[in-house]
Amino acid sequence: MSAQRTLWRRFAATPGARAGLAILAVVVVAAALADLMPYGPEEQHPGGVTTVLAPPSIAHWLGTDDRGRDVASRLVHGARVALLVGPLAVALYVAVGLLIGAAAALGRRADFVIGRLIEIGLLFPALLLLLAIQGVTSRTSLAEVAFAIAVTQWPYVARLTRAEALRVAAAPHVEAARAVGAGRLRLLGVHILPLAATPAITAAAFGIGYAVLFETALTFLGFGVPPPTASWGELLAQAQASGLRPWLLWPPTFAIAAVVLACNLVGDGVRAALSAPLQAAGA
What we know:
- By secondary structure, this protein is mostly helical.
- The chain has helices at residues 2-13, 17-32, 71-102, 108-121, 126-137, 142-169, 172-179, 184-196, 198-221, 232-241, 246-282.
- It is elongated.
């Protein structure tokens, strides 16, 4: 318990970390309560052409889109897409990158093979991968977008973990465990992986914001979450198609910027909280 309190104090002492956590909490609560909005995300207001691209009003707090749908409702429901795709993609590529990168500490041959595997993985562009997925399935789902992000991002986590695992593998406590007869898997799982995971955990905190931004960009370009699913990228695409109307452009822009900023602030806090124990272990 004292170790957890120490980590929390280091995290909270980082400038902006608490603010980032508060912003993410607001987004999570808003997404959880999205069904309480007065209009559904795909509900078209039965008011005729007067409610199409209507500016903000008492009835529609952030106006309506080109189909008469409530922008505020689609904005809040779009947070669900961001909160699903971002953490799912990060969980996938951090788990894969962590296991592959740490396995480099098993020996020189494993390190050589993993090094080449990481180099190959860095060649995969997410956009071409999504085009291939669309060509096979004719429709892109949330899981497929998260998978495409994960496939293109795991090499970066694996590269960080590999470097840290090789450094930890040469530490005195690992050499001592090897001297008393500890097997390779025990060395990897007990003595190397817990310390080598720190860069991956830090990358995960930053990676959620990147994944949200990436998903938004893909949807804006038409390769991400398919319509009529409400998403922030789709709102930006509508804003461009509708002459950059402010009530379509600024709400998703501010939401994306707030989430990315919050993830970066939380990432700074996580890095500060975990760097001291890592430095102590290295010493």
